[in-house]
Specification:
The chain is mainly α and 639 residues long. Helix content is 62%, strand content 5%. It is built from 23 helices and seven strands. The chain has a five-stranded parallel β-sheet with strand order 5-4-3-6-7, sandwiched between helices. Strands 1-2 form a two-stranded parallel sheet. α21 links the parallel β6 and β7. The chain is elongated, with a radius of gyration of 30 Å.
């Protein structure tokens, strides 16, 4: 296993940024975990039917999912919050252990020919999935600073969609291979054996590789002391869950209301998609079996692959939409699309047309597997992420548990034993969930997510661009340095602006003493700009833009930010030539007076300007005057 990385005493506040390739590697294991979960969605229920179950029994046979999720995920989350091993880390033991259990059960599952034994395998498989999933999500929150959380959970959604796509495509494609059409003695076709073996390989390869290549942050001394002093034992973990529920943000309670309808509906969809397609498209039932029923099973896998493929694509855009209009509205629209899609699907009698509604369902699934987790990760204490991820999963499995207990009777007595009616009801429940999402009042700003807002009006906390002026002198480099730190924390674009005057300076424009001097000429400005960005690497500012502007320094900064209030201007409070006791130099004063966005005024009055400028190259002093951003400060003491 890889070594842990120490983040020092400021781990929570100043987590190191991860590169794009490292974020991809960290999330790779979600591909294998979701392949396993995709098989539980699309293959386990048909397998139950193949070895003797009836459609009416499917809800109660799926009791494993909600029960194991209700018990295991919050407990594992709470226990992992209190765990630390210098060799194994905090989350990795649970992720790896769950993956190994899943691999063992996936390899054995298709060999089972007795229904009760298949149900036990399903329980164990779901226990493995749950043991891996929530610590894995908590690992993302542990490892990434808040500026990269959106990217981390977006990458998770993409791998989640990819794993489910491959799982469902394998069901469809392998079913078409003639050499795999024969059935084993337990009635399970050989193509299903191959699907489960592929799942075994995928989950072991991806999870073990991701965990070996991902380094966990070493807790600070204070956190280690808290972990060691925390009471151990199952009853203490249960008590911690109860305490977390009691104090959790109001926004999480509101998410739970919507989840009640959302996940009841999705459990219906996963259980009865093949039954519905058999009735409306292929003219087959599980009781009759035969080639037509095999086609219905295979096509249901293609349907699920279709919506998961849409999930991969739409996940690229949903987080951005949520930032602009609020996650509440984005998720409500996604729920509405899924509702219309399932209601339409229940009436389609053409297998190719039946693929179209998967577009709406895929958009919804991208929202469902990403945005709620991102909101929760950004609004709860970092040292309790595991338990809160488990509580969020409780909000998912409780509706599923209700569905498994109640829907068998509903299916038989109210829906006439029709799979199409079951899918239609799922659509109606999703529509109710969409209305409930709109009905939920936005939280107070104190409870709002700083990364993906639920929908309340709030102040700007993340900037699109951080704009700073520089003339290449030591004082201006300090302003650039501070601006780079802000841009790094906000994952914003850093724009370095150097303003200059056309022509050559005359005697009146270059007086001695402490009077401001401008840069004259594009060549001198270009050289100054080069000095300003020399030390800005991708590790300190991911997106850097350089601008040479002819004209007044203050106006150059104001023109660069335009009328976008999500930008930030960085200036020094006074510069070379400011009068003794003067609070703001002329350029920062002009910027503060006229800017429509936030202005960060760097405190520079106490810096030893005489010493700083005495050590600066004389040529630079002759050539460069005040910082283009105005009267910025000198280099950081001890730089």
């Amino acid at each position: 296993m890889s070594e842990s990385v120490s983040a020092g005493t400021e781990q929570v506040e100043r987590k190191p940024l991860m590169s794009g390739s490292a974020i991809l590697m960290m999330n790779l294991g979600f591909f294998g975990v979701q392949f396993s979960f995709g098989l539980t969605q699309s293959a386990v229920n048909p397998l139950f039917l193949l070895i003797g179950a009836t459609p009416q029994q499917l809800p109660i046979l799926n009791l494993a999912g909600p029960v194991t999720g209700l018990v295991i995920q919050p407990l594992i989350g709470a226990i992992s919050d209190r765990t630390w091993s210098p060799r194994w880390g905090r989350r990795r033991p649970f992720v790896i252990g769950g993956a190994i259990l899943c691999a063992i059960i996936l390899a054995a599952f298709p060999f089972v020919g007795v229904l009760w034994l298949a149900v036990i395998c399903f329980w164990l498989l779901d226990a493995g999935n749950n043991t891996s999933m929530e610590p894995y999500r908590a690992l993302i929150s542990d490892r990434l600073p808040k500026s990269q959380l959106a990217r981390g959970f977006l990458t998770q959604s993409m791998f989640t969609g990819a794993g489910a796509v491959l799982a469902n495509l394998s069901l469809f494609i392998l079913q078409k291979v003639s050499a795999l059409q024969e059935t084993a003695g337990n009635g399970v076709p050989y193509w299903m054996y191959v699907c489960f073996l592929i799942g075994t390989f995928c989950i072991l390869l991806t999870v073990l590789t991701a965990m070996a290549r991902t380094k966990e942050l070493t807790p600070s001394d204070e956190e280690l002391a808290e972990i060691r002093s925390a009471p151990k034992g199952l009853h203490h973990a249960v008590r911690e869950i109860a305490d977390a529920v009691r104090v959790m943000p109001v926004a999480m309670h509101k998410i739970g209301v919507v989840f009640l309808f959302q996940w009841y509906a999705m459990f219906i969809y996963w259980q009865f998609l093949a039954v519905s397609l058999g009735e409306t498209v292929f003219g087959a039932t599980p009781e009759e079996g035969g080639r037509a029923w095999d086609d219905a099973i295979a096509w249901s896998g293609l349907q699920n692959a279709g919506y998961n493929f849409v999930t991969m694509v739409s996940a690229l855009f949903l987080v951005g939409f949520a930032r602009r209009i609020g996650a509440k509205r984005v998720h409500a629209v996604a729920l509405g699309l899924a509702a219309a899609s399932l209601i339409w699907l229940a009436q389609i009698d053409n297998q190719y047309v039946a693929l179209i509604p998967m577009i709406g369902l895929g958009v919804f699934w991208a929202s469902a597997v990403g945005i709620p987790y991102l909101m929760v990760a950004s609004m709860v204490p970092a040292n309790r992420t595991g338990v809160y991820m488990g509580i969020l999963n409780m909000m998912i499995v409780v509706p599923m548990l209700i569905q498994t207990v109640t829907f068998g009777w509903i299916f038989t007595n109210l829906l006439g034993g029709s799979g199409a009616n079951a899918i239609r009801l799922a659509g109606i429940l999703l529509a109710i969930g969409a209305v409930a999402m709109l009905w939920v009042n936005p939280p107070d700003e104190a409870d709002e997510s700083p990364i993906v807002p639920l929908g309340s009006k709030r102040s700007i906390t993340v900037y699109d661009r951080v704009v700073v002026g520089s003339d290449g002198t030591p004082t201006s480099l300090y302003a650039v340095d501070r601006a780079a730190e802000v841009a790094q924390a906000a994952q914003a674009r850093l724009v370095v602006v150097t303003a200059y005057r056309d022509g050559t300076p005359d005697a009146a424009s270059t007086p001695g003493g402490k009077v401001h001097r401008d840069i004259h000429g594009a060549d001198a400005a270009r050289e100054a700009l080069g000095r300003s960005v020399t030390g800005l690497t991708r590790e300190r500012a991911r997106f850097i833009e350089q601008r040479l502007v002819a004209g007044d320094p203050a106006q150059a900064l104001l023109d660069t930010v335009g009328n976008n209030p999500a930008n930030l201007i960085v200036v020094g409070n006074r510069g070379l030539g400011a009068s003794e006791g003067q609070m703001l130099g002329s350029v920062p004063a002009g910027v503060v007076r006229n800017a429509v966005c936030d202005v960060l005024v760097v405190q520079t009055s106490a810096l030893d300007e005489e010493r700083l400028f005495a050590s600066a190259p004389e040529a630079a002093a002759d050539r460069a005057g005040p910082v283009a951003g105005g009267d910025a400060a000198g280099p950081r003491p001890g730089r």
